[in-house]
Design a protein that fits this description.
The longest helix has 24 residues. With 331 residues, the protein is mostly helical. 40% of the residues are buried.
């Protein structure tokens, strides 16, 4: 019998990819088995399901760090996602890992992020009995919420990479580990870039150690990508070298103190926290205002959180205005 294009590609993976790479023909599969495609591998199908999802499209109107920025060049959650995917694919190609799996994880890793960035996440974290974590919400999106409550039925490997992309977690595949570090490389560098553009941060105030990576964001990303590759070649453990990882931790602490906790930013954080709390309480008490697929969920608080977490920044403000602000009389 003639082999399909997918089968030929799966065979090629065994010839070309590293022994550490995850082979698409050896996936652990999906919760609901589906017929395989003649052209695309299982990981390619997952990538396409993610990019065609509503949750992915909404990322373009979700804040990365700065709340509803007016400038054209600030990052959004979508541009961040694309930067992570680009960095992760570069690393995966160099290490001969599975690029399709890497890309699918990268494109789906932030689908569960709230409106208004980590401010929204922190607000929901205080409102839910078991807290709120965006990586777990991303997994809920692809498992339970997308496609009117049917989910995307992704493969185990992609779902695992999405769920475990935060630093404290451990992905089960090297491709998941690549996305985990690429996420950090991307957001630390572009948060510095955006903070300088917003005049919250002066380049002269940056820790001197950071400039060991390079003078510009592109130079620093290039340095970090190469360090990851060189430190991971022919190894079963993948990551940055110890000294570089230490400097990255110092940079994260610097950003937390000087950017994320900036006083001007904190004033807006208080407003957003209040807005999300009011919306949350309203939807818990008025579940008929939720989308149909969420109205009859037994856990009303989780249903309200699911709805709010899926909102874009401007849709959240629209809902708040329509719910709590008096409208002008129509005469």
């Amino acid at each position: 019998m003639l082999m399909t294009i997918r089968e030929k590609y799966e065979q090629l993976e065994h010839q070309v990819l590293s022994s550490f790479a995850t082979k698409s023909g050896e996936t652990k599969g999906r919760k609901i088995p589906t017929e395989k495609c003649d052209v695309r591998t299982e990981f390619q199908k997952d990538r396409d399901r993610i990019t065609h999802s509503k949750a992915f499209r909404r990322l373009k109107h979700k804040t990365q760090v700065f709340i509803s920025p007016e400038g054209d060049h600030y990052r959004t959650r979508l541009t961040h996602t694309l930067e992570v995917a680009q960095i992760a694919r570069t690393i995966s190609r160099a290490l001969r890992l599975n690029e399709d799996l890497t890309e699918a994880i990268a494109l789906g890793h932030d689908l569960g992020h709230t409106p208004f960035g980590h401010t929204g996440e922190d607000a929901l974290d205080l409102l839910l009995p078991n807290g709120f974590r965006h990586n777990e919400q991303s997994a809920r999106v692809v498992e339970l919420l997308e496609s009117e409550g049917k989910g995307l039925n992704l493969t185990f490997e992609v779902l695992d990479g999405i769920l475990n992309h935060r630093t404290r977690n451990k992905p089960s595949t090297p491709e998941g580990r690549v996305v985990q570090v690429s996420d950090k490389i991307a957001y630390m560098n572009h948060d510095v870039d955006d903070a300088i553009r917003a005049k919250i941060l002066n380049p002269k105030d940056m820790p001197d150690t950071v400039f060991l990576f390079g003078k510009t964001p592109s130079e620093r990303i290039d340095f970090l990508v190469k360090d990851f590759i060189q430190n991971s070649l022919d190894k079963s453990e993948f990551g940055l070298s110890a000294n570089v990882a230490k400097i990255m931790s110092e940079l994260k602490a610097f950003l937390s103190k000087n950017v994320y906790a900036n006083q001007l930013h904190l004033k807006e954080r208080e407003k957003i926290s209040t807005m999300i709390e009011l919306l949350f309480d309203y939807y818990v008490e008025n579940t008929h205002q939720l989308p149909y697929e969420l109205q009859h969920r037994e856990d009303k608080k989780q249903a309200a959180a699911d709805y709010i977490a899926g909102m874009t920044d401007r849709f959240a403000m629209k809902c708040f205005t329509e719910t709590f602000m008096p409208a002008a009389w129509q005469v």
